[in-house]
Amino acid sequence: MTIWLTSDRHFGHENTCRGFSSWGTRPFASAQLMDRILISNYRQVITNEDTVYDLGDLTLAGTQHRSYVERIISQLP
């Protein structure tokens, strides 16, 4: 078992791909592509035996997009 810390994944946040951030632009054509790659990379490293602490900004979607957030979380070990 490994303990992981993560933050600021910003699933679904189109602006992270468009340069509207003070910390730079992520190299993805769309948030949908970014989400797929982030999930794939996560699943290659994290196992069901690991503990992950997400320190914030998992998504940009708020409570009005609960099903989107649940769909993202359901894909992560």
Descriptive report:
With 77 residues, this protein is α+β, with helices and mostly antiparallel strands. It has helices at residues 31-45, 66-74; strands at residues 3-6, 51-54. It has a two-stranded parallel ribbon with strand order 1-2. The chain has one domain (3-74).
Question: Secondary structure elements and their pairing?
Answer:
Blueprint: E1 3-6, H1 31-45, E2 51-54, H2 66-74
Parallel strand pairs: 1-2
Strand content: 5-15%
Low-confidence stretches: none
- Helix share, percent: 25-40%
Q: Termini distance?
A: 13 Å
Q: How are the strands of the biggest sheet laid out side by side?
A: 1-2
Tell me the major beta sheet.
2 strands, parallel
The assigned structural class equals alpha+beta
Shape assignment: globular
SSE succession: EHEH
Q: How many beta-strand elements?
A: 2
The mean pLDDT is: 86
Total of domains: 1
Total DSSP helices: 2
Whole-angstrom Rg = 13 Å
Précis, in short:
The chain is an alpha+beta fold.
Task: Output the keywords.
77 residues, alpha+beta, two-stranded parallel ribbon, 2 helices, 2 strands, 31% helix, globular
